[in-house]
DNA sequence: TAATAGTACTTTGACAGACAAAGTACTTTG
DNA sequence: CAAAGTACTTTGTCTGTCAAAGTACTATTA
């Protein structure tokens, strides 16, 4: 994490990043947390508090749903699953990002 | 302004956009406001309140300086001028943006 | 076996940037 | 003369991010 990733530059992409991971497979908080570090090749760490507030937001909006895993031993895990509304939001957010990225490039 | 530019996606770029304009020539609030709309081809409007808080921030940090124009007639104009600290900040911010952009692309 | 590190989830409170809304004051145009 | 445009500024609100703290269990290792 030598990087210079400011929260302000990545802001607004959090939900989309989370949805992007859940699009592949159901997953739980800590795993998603790790996966983001891995996918960014160690350059970006989405803080747990931020991640959980993203979960709350997305669930309230009906973009993800959750269920407890059936771990017989080991710590309990809360799994999240993307809904069809979540898929739609992902597509729209990604398109918005591409659009905005181009505008910013024009402006800098 | 049909666009889908969310404030959260552009957040963190405001100061850099302003500095980018001042890098070419000294300018004043309302002109910069117009120029941003123009440069984005009508797709993005940086609100005046946001622009002025950017000015305040940048001036406090020594990245821009200001002086009143000598308009003999017409409304008074406060001109802003980029400093060498501002040039440096611009370069760094732009590099940070390029870097972050790549990470986000990996994550979406 | 006791301590430590790791897994896993959650809440609280603070901060900063963006902006809506409102206001002041002057000028140009219809 | 009214309305629209130019130009600057303040106040208060909202939202996303995150630091810090806490709970609880498991695996490692000294």
Automatic annotation (TrEMBL), chains A, B:
Pfam families xref list: PadR
Location of the Transcription regulator PadR N-terminal domain: 18-90
Matching PANTHER family: PADR-FAMILY TRANSCRIPTIONAL REGULATOR, TRANSCRIPTIONAL REGULATOR RV3488
Protein name: Transcription regulator PadR N-terminal domain-containing protein
Organism: Lysinibacillus contaminans
